Amino acid sequence: MILVEAPGLFTTVQDLGRLGFGAMGVSPSGTADAVALRVGNRLVGNPEGAAALEMTLAGGTFVFPKGALAALAGSDFGATMDEAEASTWRPFRIPPDGRLRVGHTRSGARCYLCVRGGIEVKPFLGSASTHVLSGLGGFEGRSLKKGDILSIGSSKMTEPRPQGAVSDVLLPRKTLRVTDAPQADWFSEAAQSIFCNSGYRVTEEANRMGLRLEGPVIPAPAGGQMITEGVPLGAVQIPAGGQPIILFVEQQTTGGYPKIANVISADMSSVGQLRPRDEIRFERVDQATARALLREQEEAIRAIH
Amino acid sequence: MAELPARFQPASDQSLLVSFADRIDPAASLRVRRLLRLLELNPVKGIVNLHPAYCSVLIRFDALVTEHRELEALLRPRLENLDAVALPEPREVEIPVCYGGEFGVDLADVADMHGMNPAQVVARHSSAAYTVDFLGFAPGFGYLSGLPDELATPRLPVPRRSVPAGSVGIAGNQTGVYPFATAGGWRLIGRTPVAMFRPDRQPMSLLSIGDRVRFRPICAEEFAE
Description:
The structure holds two protein chains of two kinds.
Chain A: E1 2-6, E2 11-14, H1 34-43, E3 52-56, E4 61-64, E5 68-74, E6 79-81, E7 84-86, E8 92-94, E9 98-101, E10 110-115, E11 119-120, E12 149-152, E13 175-180, H2 189-197, E14 200-206, E15 210-214, E16 229-230, E17 235-237, E18 245-247, E19 254-255, E20 259-263, H3 268-272, E21 279-284, H4 287-302
Parallel strand pairs in A: 13-21
Antiparallel strand pairs in A: 1-4, 1-12, 2-3, 3-10, 4-9, 5-8, 5-10, 6-7, 6-9, 11-12, 13-20, 14-15, 14-21, 15-18, 16-19, 17-18, 17-20
Chain B: E1 7-12, E2 15-19, H1 26-41, E3 47-52, E4 56-61, H2 68-80, E5 92-99, H3 107-113, H4 118-127, E6 130-135, E7 142-145, E8 160-163, E9 167-171, E10 174-177, E11 182-184, E12 187-191, E13 212-217, H5 220-224
Parallel strand pairs in B: 5-13
Antiparallel strand pairs in B: 1-2, 2-4, 3-4, 5-12, 6-7, 6-13, 8-11, 9-10, 9-12
């Protein structure tokens, strides 16, 4: 059992999301940083996809009446367990009535609290993930509030893995690698050049649905009549104003803006760690490179044992 | 009509866009539904999600299991027999709508823009037969075609930050119902008391791709019930 003494800025229950319901208009949702969630779960001996708490920019205070084995993963939010420092990427034991205080971010946007056994909520379409827009899934379909009481589950467990650091390959990046999107060739060479050679700042309008960026205007495509089509995770849309939007985990499933590029799968966890005012850049890679980077990331996650 | 050639494009490193046309076209829409049906009935290894739209299907795959060219090679032969895929009989769905007033705050504007009075807009909107071309945007949000041409209205120049759940809107030549309170730029002409998406119901979504839809005007008292 976990008592929520303070919920933090925006804390939701997340797992790896629900795939397969796009035809109903349901986006996968799920963790904003799959690398952190998977690694955190491995550290406490959970299945990789067990549900955890996703904290955003500022964490909460949680009391564990019966104690627990826990790990913090993702960005360092300066946490303490009964006044002693609780570092990220290392499992630690919480004694009965132990109080975990998670502070403000010292690096990226999100920190995950993984507990041995996982957070137990009623699944919606096979996943514990909170879908904030529709108020479905997770804990009562919403972010946590003071006084909420969460259950710890009994996901099939292995031995905890006392790790102290993660491979550099798994740490967030500020240069996002992208592949071409279906409308990439609608944009002029000048537009492509602006996109790839400029810094873009993450605005305050950055959440689980998408991140609005601001920076040098990308000229609208000259030709082509855009028809609403399915949009992939990580699509970089260019609306009329020329300021890019990256579609994120709780994205709309279809969209009508032309897309100049798409963030590669291996860099989606980095998107989940972007904060408002962070400056990012884009770097084009080909499909083979994107696949190789994903495999490399996968091996680094599996190497944690 | 000659068979439309399918076009395959990588959309991301884990998705493939299959398009049947570069404009909204009933034949392409039919092929979208057939491809969706085919892949639901005969799942292909590595495919993890499908996003149908007007004339395309976005296929998300597990990039550790397959890749674009392999998937395209697997799908091309199946597309040759696409027109033989039987589709389920379309369902008829009636959606009660309380038009105008606080429920349809843009009804008067829409009527003005077309030189009609609100009652004429309601009469036309509720006498047409619509087809669910696909579901997208949000859970249970159906894009309906079949809006009478004289009701086609552009989106609001600035989208509203919040549109109440159940709102019935018009955008261009499309109409649809917002299942949840979300931001949105469609012109609102009414609201339905019926839940468009409910997790405790089977099927969860009131609408499915291919359904035939009609709107039935109701009064505020009936809405309250």
